[in-house]
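INTERNAL AUDIT FORM
Audit reference: QA-55
Scope: verify that the stored structure record matches its stored sequence.
Auditor: D.O.
Record contents follow.
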Amino acid sequence: MTPHRPEARPSATVRALSLLVLAGAVTGCSGAAATGADQEPGERTAGLLVQVTSVHEETGTTLLEGPAFAPDGGLVLVDVTAPAGEPKVLRVDTDSREVVPVFTNEDSAYTSAQFSPFDGRLYLTDFAGGGIDSVTPEGDDHTTFFSGDVDGAPMRPDDLAFDEAGNMYVSDSTGFSGPAWEARGRVVRIDRDTAEATVLAKDLPAPNGISFDEDFSGLWVGQYAANRVDHYTLGGDGTEVETSHAAIHFDGGTSRVDSIAVDAAGNLYQAVHGQPRIFVYGSTGEHLATVSVPADDADGLESATNVAIAPGTTDAYMTVSGGDGGFVYTFDALAEGTRQSNGG
């Protein structure tokens, strides 16, 4: 979620982000085909895989985001509110359930993680610092890929998606803490070779989730401050939006749309801030399924912010956080995952 870096971004920014996110503040083919022959729409209950983090004493929260599958199959994720000195990028072995730290630094608040199909590196959006960092899958060779203003205004990069060539599409969630009518958010394309930023859409109500559809012809963009998901049809080279429309409206009450993943059949897995649930929609808007944590777990969990589906399988994993800590839950997706079936 900002390319403007304060002098010393200590607890003020992180605490503001922490309070906001845990209060519920920080989405082809036909629906029938997208459901899958052996799947029935409706209520689904996810199973606990592993507890990844506990609430941090310094920030008063923990918030898991950005699950993404590394080339070797490991599940990498970020802890948005981890303080300096504690792991900000972690890796989960989904077989052994082992959790190991990957990377940390002093002053970043990472909200999304994605592996580039171009160079295989892990890219991290720094919501608080406004840049996009990059490390190897092992957490080495830290570099800043992008920083600075875009068209004269700072950016709060929240989620990201890569096209097939490795160019980056980022949701700029500027205005996320203000009224919805003060729409200042953007969708920004960043070139893989030059890191040049191009604004594809502006004056948006704090866009959050972003993901390509299954054939990479368009983008799904979740508008956090409007509780809706828009669809953008892109020009041939991906540098402009040809058409756009409001595609899905989410009746979330005090909860709001967060990250989005898309499976091989074009279904959208819409994560939510303010509920420990994932809502699954067909590409033409049908509500196909709702995935919830077990009832006994729900009281200590506020948000299910992101989801990833292991490529070539229907093994889905969602990041869930709250007063009880940060967890990964697992469920059966409606269709197989692909490289880009990581919540962005």
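Auditor finding: record pair retrieved intact. The longest strand covers residues 241-249.
Action required: none
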